[in-house]
Design a protein that fits this description.
- The longest helix has 17 residues.
- The chain is globular, with a radius of gyration of 20 Å.
- By secondary structure, the chain is of the alpha/beta class.
- It folds into 2 domains: 152 residues, 3-Layer(aba) Sandwich (Rossmann fold), CATH 3.40.50; 156 residues, Glycogen Phosphorylase B (Rossmann fold, 3-Layer(aba) Sandwich), CATH 3.40.50.
């Protein structure tokens, strides 16, 4: 099967969508799928992503006019993208409306969460769709440490009475990633020995933390190695369709303290507790259930081999002109 795409995966740390699409493409290639981004190339089906690389109505129509059935993976633009696309007009985010307008040329849509589906339905979307969360590479994001020159071993876990190591993971510096909360929290951690907080990624240029340790973005294997040395993920982003950082943390064995916004509770609910404005209060609720939560993590559905199976069934059905099984 040959699939036309509008994205070129980039190496290194370059955002959650890039990380997922790179991982998905690699997994599908292992199943015999080939990809092309050449406009004139023949393809059995198109898998187009959001508004990546300026995707617009004319481009989607041109693909459909070539007789290629189109699958569109939609992403909500509240809290992401340039100001013009994240603006709200008549109750609808502009970037979401643009994607809804692709409708006449799209055979099937993929939403990354029930939250994202509901946002688009409220924005005027109609059509066939599948809700399919993202997944991460379990060969990288897992609960096994791989020290240099030593045999792999299970990661270490938090034990009652030990200081808790909490981590924030974000590639973006957008305020929607929770920085207002983190700036406020920073002042409450001064001198604390029972809790330490590390942010891996990037911070706004005008932000300086005194208590939160900041380390630079890193490629997936080094990010996973860092996550496996932490105990809890703090995820206070808003309006996420499906946070890749949350999936990576869960798969590395991190129960989550999450802001109940976007799909965070939908994705992270079985593996953490909601943020109610206080880190101490959230950790008090989390500690008694820590072992129970980490025992459930190996069975989580956010692994790319499971996700790729679903994508492949969608690609094959749409390419053959059939209904997508299971929807």
């Amino acid at each position: 099967m040959r699939v036309f795409v509008n994205f070129t995966p980039r190496p290194g740390p370059y955002g959650g969508a890039n990380s997922f699409l790179r991982t998905l493409q690699r997994e599908l290639e292992a199943r015999g799928v080939t990809f092309t981004s050449e406009a004139g190339a023949g393809a059995d089906v198109a898998l187009l992503n959001a508004l990546t690389d300026g995707l617009d109505l004319a481009q989607v129509r041109a693909v459909a006019d070539r007789g290629i059935p189109v699958i569109h993976r939609k992403t909500g633009f509240r809290g992401r993208g340039v100001a013009d696309l994240r603006a709200e007009v008549d109750g609808v985010i502009v970037g979401d409306r643009v994607q809804v307008e692709f409708g006449p040329y799209v055979t099937h849509s993929i939403f990354q969460s029930g939250y994202s589906r509901d946002v688009f339905l409220a924005s005027g979307f109609t059509g066939a769709y599948t809700v399919q969360p993202n997944g991460v590479d379990p060969d990288v994001f897992n609960t096994v440490e791989r020290p240099r020159f030593r045999s792999p071993r299970p990661r270490s876990w938090w034990r009652a009475g030990e200081p808790l190591r909490v981590v924030i993971s974000t590639w973006s510096t957008d305020e929607s990633k929770g920085f207002s909360y983190y700036r406020e929290l920073d002042g409450t951690l001064r001198g604390r020995r029972d809790v330490g907080l590390t942010l891996v990624g990037r911070v706004p240029s005008d932000t300086r933390f005194g208590s939160i340790k900041v380390v630079s973005p890193r490629p997936a294997p080094k990010l996973a190695a860092l996550l496996k040395h932490q105990h809890v993920l703090l995820q206070l982003t808003s309006w996420e369709s499906c946070s890749n950082a949350l999936l990576e943390g869960i798969n590395c064995g991190l129960p989550a303290v999450y802001l109940d916004s976007g799909a965070n509770a939908e994705i992270g609910g079985p593996y953490g507790v909601a943020w109610n404005g206080s880190l101490d209060e959230a950790l008090e609720r989390l500690r008694p259930h820590y072992d129970e939560i980490v025992s459930r993590i190996p069975d989580n559905p956010y692994r790319v081999e499971l996700v790729a199976d679903r994508y492949l069934s969608i690609l094959e059905a749409v390419a053959a002109g059939h209904e997508v099984p299971g929807d």
